[in-house]
Amino acid sequence: MTPMIKEKLITRNLEIENLYKIEIYKKYEGYQALRKALLQMTPEQILEEVKKANLRGRGGAGFPAGLKWGFVPKDIDKPKYLCVNADEGEPGTFKDRFIMTNNPHLLIEGIIITCYCVGIHTAYIYIRGEYEHVAQRLEQAIKEAYKNNYLGESILNTGFSLNLYIHRGAGAYICGEETALLESLEGKRGHPRLKPPFPASVGLYKCPTVINNVETISNIPIIILKGGEWFVKKGLPKDGGTRLFSVSGSVKNPGVYELPTGINLKDIIFNYAGGMKEGKELKAVIPGGLSAPILKAEEIDIPMDCESLMNANSMLGSSAIIVIDNETPIIDVLRIIVNFYAHESCGQCTPCRNGTWWMKNIVKRIFEGNGKVSDIDNLLRIANNIFGKTLCPMGDAASMAVRAILEKFREEIENYIQGKE
Amino acid sequence: MSLKFSPEAEKQIKEIIKHYPEKQSALLPILHLAQKEFGYINEEVENLVAQILDIKPIKVREVVTFYTMFHQKPVGKYHIQVCRNISCSLNGAEDLINYISEKLGIKVGETTPDQKFTLSVVECLGACEHAPCMQINSEYYGNLDKKKIDLILERLNNDTDD
Fold it and tell me: By three-state DSSP, how is residue B103 classified?
């Protein structure tokens, strides 16, 4: 079956060669949304369109961007900041790298419009340290944007000024959590902060701060060009637009697929990503990055949007689909998950720091053939003791991912422990 | 203190500091720069960076020990970092890690005696469509198999420029 071609928003001009260069980008409607926003619209009108678009955050939490911007206090004598979250550490996710490499000006244009709307004059792109080559491409694009007066003093002679800087992380998953990101930007360890206060009122340098994911911001130019109502129709009424699905694992054609929000998961895997690799069968899918609770093969007939996945006790997260085949023992998946969280726990909250460490060691024992069946309930007990008891969502993520595997694949793990495989 | 940044790096540092209203924000970028200049970050480098930013050396130590990309000990000329996370594992990463380890005669975390290669395993590099993948210094390599690894290591091994 050939997949239907769906309308593309973010990746619409991607087949064009050298789109990352400003002169090419400009040939294809590039910076037209910026002109429209700055020359014809008030910040209030922009906010109205973004709200109408029902643009939910693409980083993991799925919070509506328009609401987030609206929380920033208007009349305040402190500077305001935008931090673009390009930390992209959620295992299985690579869509932001895809945008920044192929279409950096789309992100930059979105950043400028966002800053104009919220009244921000300094913005940072916090990019994970490993993406050095991507950061270089962004640096180049930013230089071009300054030369064209899209950044810097009095952009397009409107009197609105904005400086944009790249800030590289240095290898810490936790810095993708928004308040850890702020700490890291301030030159400290990435330790999440207690919320409230939320960054919209007390953020970077204790000033009001907007933090949005790369993909979220990259949707802004088209919302401005076509309007919020048009955008919402490309997805679902409460969850507008398309999504960039990062598909990887045991599929024939791994890659980034831009598809309407709400598209069926089965359809993505078997039509768009070409189905399973030769000779393999589907065992399970992690639908939203490693933190999203696993779905069994029979559970994947499901629309990919925030609400549907929440109702299935999982989450859309970063829309990263990890496809697991029937030859992969579930204990391998569990081991990767607990090793990851034990490695990435920032160490601030005891339940997460100690809980992930214990889970790692118990799973190691099981893996090496020295486990007991009672270890499964022990792991569940530890996971339950992490849940809801940490400052940031990482503890919950570790807990939910582990619980889902233990509950859905209990029999397989019991058999493994008893050597019955 | 005898340790100094090169004039070129000093110029960059001055520029970086201007990006932030508070100096300490420049810590991560300057540590990246320091690692490029000195290879790794020991106490002497920490003190130098602390002095530049006008912060206590302990503030620098806290950051250096938190982020995995900063090295407190020398690493080989080529730092091989193989992803061990899920999409790479589903595509055979574990076998490749063992293969590289045997080929270089070092365990994960070790450096070859000639200081040419260090082997590390890392968490997701964000390039899962090319799984299994690895990073050597700043460069990404994807869709790896044993043959491809042979070619890459051979090329790096023959490289004599220093």
Answer: helix
> Which residue, among A151, A30, A20, has the nearest Cα to A97 in the 3D structure?
A20
- The per-residue pLDDT for range A69-108, each reduced to its tens digit, is 999 998 899 999 999 999 999 999 999 999 999 999 999 9
Q: What domains appear along chain A, each with residue ranges and CATH number? A: 22-232 (3.40.50.11540), 242-323 (3.10.20.600), 330-417 (1.20.1440.230)
Among B64, B94, B111, the domain boundary falls at B64
Residues B60 and B90 in one domain: no
Q: How far apart are CA A302 and CA B157, in angstroms?
A: 50
Residue B1 lies in a domain: no
Q: Is position B101 within any domain?
A: yes
Of the partner residues A165, A186, A320, the one whose CB lies closest to the CB of residue B19: A165
**Residues of the domain holding B139:** 78-158
Flag if A173 and B123 touch (Cβ within 8 Å): yes
The CATH number linked to B137 is 3.40.30.10
Total-model pTM: 0.97
Q: Are residues B127 and B84 in the same domain?
A: yes
Is residue B84 in a domain?
yes
| Domain final residue pick, B42, B64, B86 | B64
| Both structure tokens of B104 | 């270089």
Contact A91 B139 (CB under 8 A): no
**ipTM for this prediction:** 0.96
B73 part of a folded domain: no
Minimal Cβ distance to A344: which of B31, B123, B135: B123
Tens-digit pLDDT profile for residues B42-101: 999 999 999 999 999 999 999 999 999 999 999 999 999 999 999 999 999 999 999 999
Q: Which residues of chain B neighbour A184 with C-beta distances below 8 Å?
A: 28
Identify the pLDDT of residue A418.
94
Name the helix (H) or strand (E) containing B34.
helix B27-38
**CATH at B43:** 1.10.10
Dihedral in degrees, nearest 10, Cα atoms A276, A235, A318, A116: 150
Owner of token pair 């919320």:
A195
Q: Which residue from B69, B85, B122 is facing A170, i.e. has the nearest CB?
A: B69
Distances (CA, A) of A273 to A138, A266, B8: 29, 10, 47
In 3D space, the residue among B60, B119, B66, B121 whose CA is nearest the CA of residue B88 turns out to be B121
Indicate the SS3 state at residue B75.
Answer: coil
Alpha-carbon span B26 to A162, nearest angstrom: 19
